[in-house]
Every structure is written in structure tokens, then in C-alpha cells.
Design brief:
The protein is an alpha/beta fold and about 425 residues long. The protein has two domains: about 15-20 and about 280-405, Aspartate Aminotransferase, domain 1; about 25-280, 3-Layer(aba) Sandwich (Aspartate Aminotransferase, domain 2), CATH 3.40.640. The protein is built from 13 helices and 14 strands. The protein has helices spanning about 25-30, 40-60, 75-85, 100-110, 125-135, 155-165, 215-220, 235-240, 265-280, 285-305, 330-340, 370-385, 395-405, and strands spanning about 15, 65-70, 90-95, 115-120, 140-145, 145-150, 155, 170-175, 195, 210-215, 320-325, 345, 345, 355-360. It has a seven-stranded mixed β-sheet, with helices on both faces. A three-stranded antiparallel β-sheet has the order 11-14-13, covered by helices on one side. A two-stranded parallel sheet has the order 1-12. Strand 13 and strand 14 (about 355-360) form a beta hairpin. The chain is globular and about 70 Å long. The N and C termini lie far apart (about 70 Å). Bound molecules: pyridoxal-5'-phosphate. Pyridoxal-5'-phosphate (PLP) binds next to helix 3 and helix 4.
């Protein structure tokens, strides 16, 4: 009797090639398996939280403050909105996909007078038209999703930052699927609120929300007519409760900070490990790696006869959105890849759910180690679903692309030799509770 082999059977979980949450580096997993510490303990503050927040400034490429709070990408977006926008403020929202729509909804709920600047799905952003619209509306803030995860596109944030500065508007940038995978220059681009979540290219567990705040954004909060309606997510309260006086906050230097929300200690330790991994690699190397991995993935998809969804000039290096062959249902491909080959990719979102697939190259997964098996599983799954294709064509094209990838910037620190123990994440010594 013949049996069909299920290749996913021997794995306890699928490999995460969705556009986040993504795979976690071993030091990050290790940090999650330590005994608990106490969130208000001074040692936690000094040994874990503060070094993490300071290191995150390098990742965000800012000299300003990075606020780390429990939540996800949406928490950062909402905290930013509820902190700087007052009811009746004009906000120009660039909507180029599902996450632009999310921003529109958040702004509407905080009472902003929203003007939507609509970009066709997968199409380029017309900067001349946007500049004209910014001039007409004269908004308090312009918002952009840097990397639109729903369509696999990256937009010219530096240019939009210039437009915002030209009309004296704050520039609020969603970098949920770009930061630590694609170059994001918070200060250089004039980003006033750079808002993201932990589970994508930062390669930390889901559960933390991050925001870098400019001096202009702090000033906007300080000059509000009324206090923010949110106690917990008011960033000004965060400034007062946990930023030392020498850095512009209200906490006397050397005094323990108060926590506007109890900070999840395990998730902070994991973030500390994740940031250490990122800075050990070095940002230039990391961005080059994501670019090369995404290019190899696209070369593989192209060799399989699959067409990318977006305009070829704005393809994302962290999320690839590809059209499925005619008569192939994306959900069936996802199911087959997961259940038979142990690799999880995503379908498109909303109106693109029935026509596209999305594959993440984020953090660890931006490498041949993950991209080649994903293409291989996709080829097998499509073949199982009746698509006629030459087996191995996609994998071969991606391998060639990896082989021919140009020289990358040197990594900041060399890869540890095999067998060397991975250093445990910094662990605070608990002190007596309050
Ligand atoms: C661009 C973008 N913005 C916002 C979000 C929402 O983030 P979260 O799911 O972490 O709340 C996502 C999630 O995928 C995203 O990709």
C-alpha cells in the first residue's frame, strides 16, 4: 500500500515566512525563558530597560527618545495620534493600502479633520500632487505608511518628510514593516513620530510597541489646548514619567523612573537581545542583506512565471506581494505549503486576498536558509495544485541571484564560531519590591 509522505509532519510548527511575526534569533528566545524580574525594580531599569531604549536610538537612527510600551504596531500608531492630534486638527493621510486605511481610521477616531490622499494599490506616489495637496490643506500632520505591507511596496519617506517640512506639518511615519529591515532615517528625514511594532524586522516577539519622538512632536504635545484623552497612551506622560531631566524629561537624574504602564519584563529582555543582534550585524549590512534576499526571492518567483503585484520601481525588500497564476486560489497555496511542506506564507489582504500571495523576508528569514526552501515549497505546492512548471526553476534562479549578489558592507561584528555559547541576555538581580 502506498502512502503519501507529509513533509510537515516532523516539524512542530511551520516556518514563519509570513510578513510578521517572523522567526526569532536564538538569543531572543533565550531571553524569553529566564525567570521573571520585577518591572519597577531599579536593576531592571538600569540593566535591561535603559540599555534597550538607548540602543534602539541607533536602530531608529535618531538622537531623540524612543518610547517602548506594551502593545503592537497599532498601539504605537494610536499613541502617536492621541498624543499630538487634537479634535479638529487637519491631517493629510496618504492611503496606499490597508495600513493607510488603518491610519485614516485612527486619525478619524481621535477627531482629526482627515483629508485622504489616495494612491492606487501598488502604484507610485505622485509627489508633485501630494505637495500641492499639502499646500492646499495646510495640515497639522502628514501621515505615511513607509512600507505598505498589504501591497509589498516601499514609499519615498524622505521626500514626504520634505513636503511636510515645507508646509510646517508634523511628519508621522508608520514603519511597522520596515524599521530594521529597510533604511529608516528618523532624524535625517524629519520624521516626528516614527511608529513601529516588535514582531517584524526587529525580530523580537509580538507584544511591544515602539515610537521615536522628535523635539517638534514633544512641542506639539506641550502646546495642546487640552490634555490628551488617553492616560495610558499619552506620550507626554511617558516623557514626564520616565525620561531623565538631562534628556528633557521630568525624572531627576539618578532617580528611578515611574512606569506609565507596567512594562513586560520578558518582552523587554527579548527586545534587548534583538537589538543587540541587530547592532552586532550593523545596519548597512542588515539592509543590504534584506535587499539581496528579496531580490533573490523575486528572481525565483519570476523564473516560476509569477508576476509581482506592485510597480517594479517601489518593490519592498521585506514583503513580496505576488500574483497567483490564473485559476489558483491563494488560500489553497498557503494551506498546501503549510500542511504539506511546513512553511507558512500569507495571502493578500482584503480585495487582494483572492489574487495574491505575500512572503516576508524579515530579520532572520532574509537569507538563503529560508528563501530557498520557501521557493521550493511553493513550486511543489503549485505543482500539487495542477500548475505546470519546470521543477527547480525558481530555486535555481534564486540561488544564482544569491551567488551573484554584490559585495555587502562588512558586518559590525563577526558571526560567533560554531559551538560557542550564545551570551544570555542581561538579567537583572531582583531587589526588594515596593
Ligand atoms: C504597515 C503596518 N502598519 C500597521 C500594522 C499593524 O501592526 P500590529 O499588527 O503590530 O498592530 C501592520 C501589521 O501588519 C503593518 O504591516
Amino acid at each position: 500500500m502506498s502512502t503519501t509522505i507529509n513533509w510537515a509532519q516532523c516539524h512542530t510548527r511551520p516556518v514563519l515566512m509570513i510578513p510578521g511575526p517572523t522567526e526569532l534569533p536564538p538569543p531572543v528566545i533565550q531571553a524569553m525563558t529566564q525567570p521573571p524580574s520585577i518591572q519597577y525594580d531599579r536593576t531592571f531599569d538600569e540593566v535591561v530597560l535603559e540599555p534597550t531604549v538607548l540602543a534602539l536610538r541607533n536602530v531608529f537612527q535618531t538622537a531623540g527618545e524612543v518610547i517602548l510600551m506594551p502593545g503592537s504596531g497599532r498601539t504605537a500608531l494610536e499613541a502617536g495620534a492621541v498624543s499630538v492630534i487634537e479634535p479638529g486638527d487637519r491631517v493629510l493621510v496618504v492611503v496606499a493600502g490597508q495600513f493607510g486605511l488603518l491610519m485614516r481610521e485612527i486619525m478619524t477616531r481621535v477627531g482629526a479633520e482627515v483629508t485622504e490622499f489616495t494612491v492606487e494599490l501598488g502604484a507610485r506616489l505622485d509627489l508633485t500632487r501630494l505637495a500641492a495637496e499639502a499646500n492646499r490643506v495646510r495640515p497639522k500632520a502628514i501621515t505615511l505608511v513607509h512600507n505598505e505591507t498589504s501591497t509589498g511596496t516601499t514609499y519615498a519617506a524622505a521626500d514626504v518628510g520634505r513636503i511636510a517640512q515645507g508646509v510646517g506639518a508634523l511628519f508621522l511615519l508608520d514603519t511597522v514593516s520596515s524599521v530594521a529591515g529597510i533604511d529608516v532615517r528618523t532624524d535625517e528625514w524629519g520624521v516626528d513620530l516614527n511608529m513601529t511594532g516588535s514582531q517584524k524586522c526587529l525580530a523580537a516577539p509580538l507584544g511591544m510597541s515602539l515610537g521615536a519622538v522628535s523635539d517638534r512632536a514633544w512641542a506639539a504635545m506641550e502646546h495642546r489646548a487640552r490634555k490628551s484623552s488617553s492616560l495610558v497612551y499619552d506620550l507626554l506622560r511617558w516623557k514626564e514619567h520616565w525620561i531623565p531631566a538631562s534628556r528633557g524629561g521630568k525624572v531627576p537624574d539618578g532617580a528611578p523612573r515611574r512606569q506609565p504602564i507596567s512594562i513586560p519584563t520578558h518582552l523587554t529582555a527579548a527586545m534587548h537581545a534583538a537589538v543587540t543582534v541587530i547592532l552586532d550585524e550593523g545596519l548597512p549590512h542588515r539592509f543590504a542583506r534584506h535587499a539581496a534576499a528579496a531580490a533573490a526571492l523575486r528572481a525565483g518567483l519570476d523564473a516560476m512565471g509569477l508576476e509581482m503585484f506592485p510597480d517594479a520601481t517601489i518593490l519592498s525588500n521585506t514583503v513580496s506581494c505576488v500574483k497567483t497564476p490564473k485559476d489558483v486560489v491563494p488560500a489553497a497555496v498557503v494551506e498546501r505549503m503549510r500542511d504539506q511542506y511546513g512553511i507558512l506564507i500569507g495571502t493578500g489582504l482584503d480585495t487582494m486576498r483572492t489574487t495574491t500571495l505575500r512572503i516576508g523576508t524579515m530579520g532572520m528569514t532574509a537569507s538563503p536558509h529560508y528563501v530557498l526552501p520557501t521557493l521550493s515549497a511553493l513550486e511543489l505546492a503549485l505543482r500539487d495544485l495542477g500548475v505546470k512548471a519546470e521543477p527547480g526553476a525558481g530555486v535555481a534562479a534564486a540561488q544564482a541571484a544569491f551567488a551573484n549578489a554584490g559585495p555587502a558592507p562588512a558586518a559590525a561584528r563577526p558571526v560567533p564560531a560554531a559551538g560557542r555559547p550564545v551570551p544570555a541576555a542581561a538579567r537583572p538581580v531582583p531587589a526588594a519590591g515596593r
